Amino acid sequence: MSLEFLDLPQLISAAGTVRLPGSKSISNRVLLLAALADGETEVRDLLASDDTERMLDALKVLGVGVVSLGGENWRITGCAGHFPVRQAELFLGNAGTAFRPLTAALALAGGDYVLKGVARMHERPIGDLVDGLRQLGADVTYLGNDGYPPLHLRPATIRPDGVVSVRGDVSSQFLTGLLMALPLTGQTVAVDVIGELISKPYIEITLAIMARFGVTVEREGWQRFTVRAGSRYVSPGTVYVEGDASSASYFLALGAIGGGPVRVEGVGRDSIQGDVKFAEALARMGAVIETGPNWMEARAPQGGLVAVDLDCNHIPDAAMTLATAALFAKGTTTLRNIASWRVKETDRIAAMATELRKIGIEVEEGADFIKITPSTAPDRKSPCGIRPAAIDTYDDHRMAMCFSLAAFATPLRINDPKCVAKTFPDYFERFATVTRIAPVIAIDGPSASGKGTVAARVAAALGYAYLDSGALYRLTALAAQRAGVAWTDEAQVAVIAAALDVVFSESDIRLNGELVGDAIRTEDISAGASQVAALPAVRDALLFRQRVFNTAPGLVGDGRDMGSVIFPQAKLKVFLTASAEVRAERRYNQLIDKGFSANLPHLLSDLQQRDARDSQRSVAPLRQEADARLLDTSHLTIEQAVKQVLDWVVEVL
Ligand code: DC
User: What SS3 state is found at 529?
Assistant: First the structure.
């Protein structure tokens, strides 16, 4: 798994407008039909993503004319059903919307082709489609396990007019693939669907796009689909790809949870995509929904969202978004008839359950359902029982996007966030434009500058949380000392830092249950803290632990790298300092007050040494950042310093 991650602070609200990227399902269907059609097609607003790139690459390998017109616009020169390249090996990654329809088209196109994907693609069943193609006379060999990619396709011996049966209860993409390829047979073929057809709205998309390219499918209910001999694809000239309705679901949910209104542009009432029905599901949870021909908008209801018990067969992808929206709904949400989740990019029922449990949610899962119960009366302003965690995304774009909603309850880490590139490469950038995060006031500066006292008072005045980050380095030094680990042993100290069992309360700090508020303030531990703080592995181990303090309504953090490394997004950055002499004197008075003995010249030289080490180390050195405001407290009282910071807060918030 990738080591990359994205840390999300707790969100406090959402509002704004997002123009959606093109629909994945429509994009790849349009590309394939444009390639199979007679004539040139200009495809506008195509989705730029991994899945569409796999399709574009495959079409190029097959000799189809593919020209970028700039932006998300492409010109495809169709091959009228005959791919120029008759022998090729195609790599299709994990793109189901490329793999299934290309399998069907190439099996009937009369060439010799090998189709492969990533390991997960080779675990996703394709046997039902292959069975259907074989009934038509296709020559398909499994190169790995029976029923799964990779596949070897050789020229078919098309059987005369007939009837083909295909299962419809595992993935609707089999029927889609088969239907789109039927005009290549030159025969009249009827397809009978065996079992209850799932995800019917996706079949509607297929039929609508086939019609756009001039092929009419006769339909008897959801049981039998017939394509007549003589049907052939003809370019409609220009095709505009609708915005992605599944992608819309995250933003509508943001509006429903975070106040709103959040408006999505690119899909609306007139959409051919079934996932627009997600808006109805959200409305059943209480969200206030408005729609126009080409847009939809969601707002939070007055009394908060309520749980639903819903058959989600018609919105398999967007239903995942309901699973994390359920964290903010009163009661137990049950999503039923979602067996297809188990054969998607990952086993989505298992993945969803595992990750929801990590943040403290009660989940029940079955073969084809998931039940989600948020801890206690959830309220995004005081979320109960939901705790921060690092969320794994299983190379599944929807896992990453769904869990971004959970940031309304708690700060979160999303592992491998780039997996969103499958359908929505700049998801998190758009997400940032419509959400407001809990603000951070970062106060950095040298030892004994008084920043701790100032920061704590500013936090109290604002009603914000307070993070004394230096305490974490001090606790690490103390825990290492107690474990007999040298402060120079980077690997071992990092292990200790990662596992610190700390509880911060209003007035004290507990390490392994023991009060240590005074024990971490000795000169010995001060020196140790400064040493362990210079170790990169220790700083890494403490990164997420610090970021989880970034909760609503806001945070004041003090340390050395609050504004530069831990909270670079801080609304206000203050560099708070005082001359070394003044700081040594303050420290001296503090120690004497506490009844310790102290020596002023020693304190001054210790302080100067620590300053040197903190500012000269290679990782996160102490320095005033370009965007930090300087506050020299040498000649200020604490009250004056606090007032100055609060004045700045008013200016920036
Ligand atoms: O602020 P303090 O004196 O409690 O910090 C103790 C040590 O930890 C100090 O030597 C600097 C280091 N530190 C750090 O490197 N980064 C922080 N964000 C906070 C403290």
Answer: helix
